[in-house]
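Hi L.,

As promised, Nucleoside-diphosphate-sugar epimerase:
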Amino acid sequence: MTDREPRVALVVGATGISGQALCSQLVGDGWTTYGLSRHDTLPVDGVTPIAADLLDPDQLADALRDVAPEVVFLVAWMKQDTEKENIEVNSRLLRNVFTALEPAGSVRHVALMTGLKHYLGPFEDYGTAVTAETPFHESEPRLDNDNFYYAQEDEVFAAAERMGFTWSVHRAHTIVGFAVGNAMNMALTLSVYATLCREHDRPFVFPGSETQWNGLTDVTDVGLLAEQMIWAATHAEGENEPFNIADGDVFRWRWLWPQIAEHFGVEPVGFDGEPKPLDDRMGDAPDEWRAIAEKYDLVEPDVTRLASWWHTDSDLGRDIECLTDMTKSRQAGFLGFRSTPQSFADAIARYREARIIP
């Protein structure tokens, strides 16, 4: 940490998987940490909760009136039906946050989390207009289509010019880690899927595409993402730059899938002819999981609060190679890394310890 390190932070989206990891690291490092969400309580101890609707500017201004953060971490988004709606809603929530914080004049740095749809395009036009070679580099130009990530970046840039803060953008790949009450997490989705397979003596069938099964890819440990965002907020080398963030290793799912299966004692089955999406096969999961939760005295019987079939299907179903270059981040001085198999193993162990999976 540098001598310029601030000690007051606001995490916008504190209940999400990334927000929880940021809150944990900030509190552990001694920061005064505020967590903004819709909730009056937060899953991380030591964080001061701020409950407000990000789309209600008056409510947000009231909630943040006495908060003067030096660093703002933006890890919140609201999924809409179309990309035009994504742009409108997710731009507005950032504008509302900046408007509420501007009177205090305290903000020195804003760190925004986006993702690889920066290079791949939005959900509704996913992978059809990719121009970048893999691994993806931060210097690639924007795609010529609607993308709420671009709109959010532009909101940050405009506010930075007006309010005088520095910024950083963090482009994560598929996020792996531990979070309570957040379902957009491949590690937990695959853990629930593997548990269902084990309990009903089914094979652990890879749901995705042949390209993902055989091609190289990477993922992002959520703790590493938090480390990079905090590093950028506390080091001059991280100012006014976009950074990819992935574990630093690469793998093929045909290599990792059997290792995940081993944690659950299930038979791994690879790609065979065509994708087999989870969303199409998990119709009985709500009732099956309820029975498993009762059998093992688990804390969450509602499988929809644990697994996000569509989200994992979108990552594993891509018919395009997807991995990132980390050179820019390393040259700037951020040298963090993770072992991807260990990231999955650690997340699985924590979910078991918390009695979320048996």
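The radius of gyration is 20 Å.

Thanks again for sending the construct details.

K.
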